[in-house]
Amino acid sequence: MVMTPQRRVLLEELKSSLDHPSADELLERVRRRLPRTSLATVYRNMELMASLGLVRKLKGKRGRAHFDGRMEPHHHMRCALCGRFFDLPHEVEGLSIELPGEICGNKVLDWNLEILVECSLCRGGN
Asked: What predicted TM-score, i.e. pTM, was given to this entire model?
């Protein structure tokens, strides 16, 4: 993959982000630096980078794609009301999950835990 200016800025914006933006949200951020970037460019490049394992693609509310630049193993909470994604802290009291390398004769390559929540923002908290 050739690192075009658009791809470089997309990766920089995503990696510096604490949230899990949609393509529309990424476009808004990228246009501050590259005003002529199109939504098609964002989708095409994010799909490519996800297929190469450079970013994670998350399936949000109503199938809307969100992207995560944090590639180390971690899991997510997704708000059932607003669709926002949040990283699940590594140390969640009472939650311990470890998978073996093989399940029912199948080699485990990767796995993802997503907990559906009602976030504090939707509940009127901070």
From this structure: 0.78
